[in-house]
C-alpha cells in the first residue's frame, strides 16, 4: 500500500501535484468532505456539501477525523486505502492520521510566505492570507513530513515525479 499524504499551506500546490499523481501515475485521490464553496470546475479534491449534510455525516460517525479551518468544516471519510492513494490534508490532522495509517508517507509542499500570499491573491482566497498562520503551518508541516518540497523552486510535475521515485525506492 502506498498512502501518500500531501500537506502544506493554502496556495502551495497540493491539488496540482495530486492531480498530476492521478493523471500521470495512476494514483487515486481520497476526497475530503467540506462545507466550503467550490472555487471552480478545477476544484475536484473535495466533496462539497452544505452544513446540514456535513453535520449529519459527522453525527453518523462517517469520518476518521474532522477539522474546522478558514470558517469551514472538513472531514476525512472512513476508507480502506488502495494502492497509490493520495490525501490532501492540513498538518494539524497528521498525528491522528498516523494512529490509523502509521506507514503513510507524509509530504510537505510549501513555498516562501510571500509567494504563497501572491498565489492566494491571484486565486481570490483573501480569507486565507494570514502570514503568521501560514508560517506556523509550514513549520508544523516540516516537522511532521517525511520529505519537503518547495513549489517555488520545483514544478508540480517535478514534485510528483520525485514522490513516485521515492515510493519506488522504498518498495
Fold and architecture overview:
- With 171 residues, the protein is an alpha/beta fold.
- It is 39% helix and 23% strand.
- It has helices spanning 14-25, 51-59, 94-100, 113-122, 131-144, 156-170, and strands at residues 3-7, 28-29, 32-34, 46-48, 63-69, 72-77, 85-88, 105-110, 147-150.
- The protein has a five-stranded parallel β-sheet, with helices on both faces.
- Helix 1 crosses helix 6.
- The longest helix has 15 residues, at 156-170.
- It is globular.
- The mean pLDDT is 90.
Structural Rg:
15 Å
Number of contiguous helices: 6
Helix/strand class: alpha/beta
How confident is the prediction overall: mean pLDDT? 90
- Strand residue content: 15-25%
- Helicity, in percent? 25-40%
Strand element count: 9
Shape estimate = globular
Low-confidence stretches: none
**Could you give the order of strands across the largest sheet?**
2-7-1-8-9
Order of helices and strands: EHEEEHEEEHEHHEH
Distance between the termini: 10 Å
Summarize the biggest pleated sheet. 5 strands, parallel
Amino acid at each position: 500500500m502506498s498512502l501518500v499524504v500531501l500537506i502544506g499551506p493554502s496556495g502551495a500546490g497540493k491539488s496540482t501535484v495530486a492531480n498530476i499523481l492521478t493523471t500521470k501515475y495512476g494514483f487515486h485521490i481520497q476526497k475530503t468532505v467540506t462545507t466550503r464553496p467550490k472555487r471552480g470546475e478545477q476544484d475536484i479534491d473535495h466533496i462539497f456539501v452544505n452544513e446540514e449534510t456535513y453535520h449529519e455525516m459527522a453525527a453518523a460517525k462517517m469520518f476518521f477525523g474532522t477539522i474546522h479551518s478558514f470558517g469551514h468544516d472538513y472531514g476525512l471519510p472512513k476508507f480502506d486505502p488502495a494502492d497509490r492513494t493520495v490525501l490532501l490534508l492540513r498538518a494539524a490532522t497528521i498525528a491522528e492520521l498516523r494512529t490509523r495509517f502509521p506507514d503513510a508517507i507524509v509530504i510537505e509542499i510549501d513555498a516562501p510566505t510571500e509567494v504563497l500570499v501572491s498565489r492566494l491573491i491571484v486565486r481570490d482566497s483573501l480569507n486565507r492570507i494570514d502570514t503568521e498562520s501560514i508560517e506556523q503551518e509550514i513549520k508544523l508541516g516540516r516537522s511532521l513530513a517525511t520529505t519537503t518540497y518547495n513549489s517555488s523552486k520545483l514544478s508540480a510535475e517535478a514534485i510528483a515525479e520525485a514522490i513516485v521515485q521515492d515510493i519506488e525506492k522504498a518498495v
